[in-house]
Amino acid sequence: MDYLEINGGIPLRGEVSISGSKNAVLPILAAALLTDEECVIHRIPNLSDVKFMGKILESLGAEVQFYGESIHVRAKDIRPVGDYDIIRKMRGSICIMGPLIGRLHEARVSLPGGCVIGARPINLHLRGFEALGGEISLKEGYIIVKVPRLKGTNVFMGGRKGSTVLGTANIMMAAVLAEGDTVIEYAACEPEVKDLADFLIKMGADIHGAGSPTIYIKGVSKLHGAEHTVIPDRIEAATYAIAAAATQGEVTLANVIPEHLQSVLYELRQANVECLTGTNTIRVKRNPGPLRPVSIATQPYPGFPTDVQAQFMTLMTQVNGISIITERIFESRFMHVPELERMGAKIELEGINAIVEGGRQLQGAHVMSSDLRASAALVIAGLIAENRTIISRIYHLDRGYEKLEQKLRILGADIGRWNSDPDSPNYRAIPSSLVISEE
Ligand code: EPU
């Protein structure tokens, strides 16, 4: 299995170009199912999740071709049921339901299980489909939605934890081809929802208000092919910003939309990090003087993103004082905590709060990735730790960070990817002092 080896202690310096947004591109690719004409999407990040989505679209009958950073999708003849196992493996694949319902009035999708960060129910998606006229059943692990008459209506997307990003995307994609008007209330306001709406509008949809809590959709009878460039990945950008601050470096993030990062930049500034924004750039540098402890609570956009919680926690391990990190979106998104502790951090978990007693020098260790953003937190920890850090199970990182090692090496980091399997061309044994059981 691939692993990362990082020799920490080098401040990151230079410029890093931010890739297209993973969480924007997945529903946008699904939206290409809404038309039989070709759609062309640019600034596609080279990630395993994106390749997975390509396979899912193919399993539904679409033709999918990658050309460098662009992808062409033609969903001429599609069926409402895709490959059970591929769909089951990726949570994000749930967003094919909306377009299948919009175009074919039927979707059969393997029910996504929970994942390491929490239960991840889809009750709000289903409530929305029901409101649009859907009849829902469960058979042999498939969730089946049939909509004899897809009719616009008022859909309330609020749940116990607030709104739902992919739920809002799903209902929007079904409603664009419904008869009549739909109003989505308590819609997710994330920039990825707005980007999807922008693409749907290019396809001929009539949507107003995306990016706000109320979205108005007038159903149209048909959509056509369109071309679109996805927004930059605000979570990737935030990760590099935090890595720059943590390593006491100076990094310019290029190809970003600073407005999408307001809450993260606000908290970094509170922590005594300078963040200078340009039109499409952000320069991040530590101000003179020590970092200050900052307590954060994750919230739906425009609040502090849950997808940046783990990385911010790593930064707080470097601050003299106590910070409280509150996770309000996913119930078990603290899998990075025991790994950070293995590196010398002092963190106490109390329900949805992690109490970080910062100011300890982290020590290199062999740590395990558990999910995408927890892995990013461990990479940042490795960059600031003394000595060598080994990070295993990095397939999680490949889901969401394009060219991670290359980008970090350009910024000066000492980071390499090796494989622990002696038969691999990239074999390098994990030093015996760092070997740990993966059980
Ligand atoms: N929820 C429900 N019922 C539902 C749907 C969601 O109770 O029907 C709850 C969830 O359990 C959670 C909260 O609502 O507590 C928010 O979940 P949401 O539905 O918004 O998450 P998602 O749409 O499945 C997307 C991103 C996640 C990101 C969340 C929150 C994609 C592919 N995934 O997931 O990204 O954390 O929004 O912003 O867009 C990541 O990139 O690492 C990642 C996990």
Quickly describe the structure.
Helices cover 29% and strands 25% of the residues.
Structural account:
This protein has helices at residues 22-31, 48-59, 84-89, 97-104, 123-131, 165-175, 191-202, 234-246, 262-270, 309-316, 336-342, 372-384, 395-398, 404-410; strands spanning 2-7, 13-17, 38-42, 63-67, 70-74, 106-110, 135-139, 142-146, 154-156, 181-185, 206-208, 214-218, 227-229, 250-254, 273-277, 281-286, 296-297, 321-326, 346-350, 353-358, 366-368, 388-392, 414-419. Strand 4 (63-67) and strand 5 (70-74) form a beta hairpin. The strands form 6 sheets. It has a 4-stranded mixed sheet with strand order 21-22-1-23, with helices on one face. A 4-stranded mixed sheet has the order 2-14-16-15. A 4-stranded mixed sheet has the order 4-5-3-13, covered by helices on one side. The chain has 2 domains: 2-17 and 233-434, UDP-n-acetylglucosamine1-carboxyvinyl-transferase, Chain (Alpha-beta prism); 22-229, UDP-n-acetylglucosamine1-carboxyvinyl-transferase, Chain. The two termini are 14 Å apart. 52% of the residues are buried. It is an alpha+beta fold. Helix content is 29%, strand content 25%. The structure holds uridine-diphosphate-2(N-acetylglucosaminyl) butyric acid. Uridine-diphosphate-2(N-acetylglucosaminyl) butyric acid is lined by residues 23, 26, 92, 118-125, 159-161, 164-167, 188, 306-307, 329-330, 372-373, 400.
